[in-house]
Amino acid sequence: MSISSIALGAAACGSGEDSGGTSAKAKPTNCTNKIVRPDATRVSVWAWYPNMAKVVDNFNNAHTDVQVCWTNAGQGAPQYAKFQTAIAAKKGAPDVIMLESDQLVGFEIQDALVDISAYGANEVKANFSDGAWKDVSQGEAVYAIPVDGGPMAMIYRTDVFEKYGIKTPPKTWAEYAEAAAKMKAAGGPLFGDLGSNVPAVVTALMIQKGAKPFTYDLANKQNITIKLDDQATKDVLNYWADLVSKKLVGTADQFTTDYIAGVVNGKYATYVSAAWAPGYLTGAGVGSGASKGKFAVAPLPQWDVNAPVSVNWGGSAFAVTSQAADKKAATKVAMGLYADDASLTDGWKTQTIFPLNQSVQKSDAFISNKVEFFNGQTANKDIYIPAGDAYQGATYSPFTVYYYAQLQAQIVKINSGKTTGDQAATELQDIMVKYAKSQGFIVQ
Asked: Please, how many CA atoms are within 13 Å of residue 139, restricted to the half-sphere of its CB?
């Protein structure tokens, strides 16, 4: 298979239906939202943010020359599958698409996304941190406009910590393991969880330790460096394997009904997650009833407190597809959608997003916000903004979906005691090198 036709691992789930792409002759008409100005240029958008209807209305009411025609084509993988089908068919893609940052390169390499620096994208570069901008760029090329991010931290149960004598949140991963052992010895609950369905978290923790799983530059499409059997990766996998073997942390898949019930009932003392987690947990019913006021957040534990590293989980951006009929208008939408004050304010106040726009992050309202989920803690000021500012960006591979699936399989084996961290890292390296070569890459 040639590099230009590399699949993202989910294409078979898509349909061949034309569900949003535009042409020079026709405007998209399958809009979920109301078009305020029918004569304006119309730009089709796929996005799944929960408050997207309000965001689209805000944009359309503020613009006379361009209107957004929005469709929710699925969240995450289902949407990516439909987009992959549209790429193969060379029709059916939207003009603008919401993508998670770690998925961008896989579509960039297929020439499915447009370098929007030629259409003014750099005009808003100053609105974002260097790390956030790096995640959507390749050299001088810009392939998306950031919206939200996921600087990572450690959420914890204050009542559980107090009951079992954990006086301060662990600052290092060594202290985390010590606190977990202390809690178990006292008859307490699991200290955390290593779900196999969060390979992005494990990857982030590998990067925090100093790993560089992939080195890739779109300017040299054929070459890629893969380092998944390095010492940093082995250290992280062995660390969590040890916690699992001692039954200090659980192995439940996250985002499930059972897992959420455990979070509500105090089955887990900590939750290593991202800045968007409070919104997700609140929406799932956590933080109400008996669990109300029981949560706080602390910085992500470090391997070396003298050399802290901030990492990211999740975060999405708006990209312009190569099938867009009017790429300048589409870029205007990508730059302006979810960028106005009303949309951003609604996003962060409802905890729908953790906004990357610096106009929000530097506002007193956001900085000083006393987060209800954290019982009034000023989590933005104390935890999430510093973590986001320190984030340096990451380099993702052109085959994130396949890589995550293989890492997930290794985590399953670690959790069942069938492999060690060292063995998992070596096998993962071999699998990914073989796969990359089968896709036409030269592995350095």
From this structure: 9
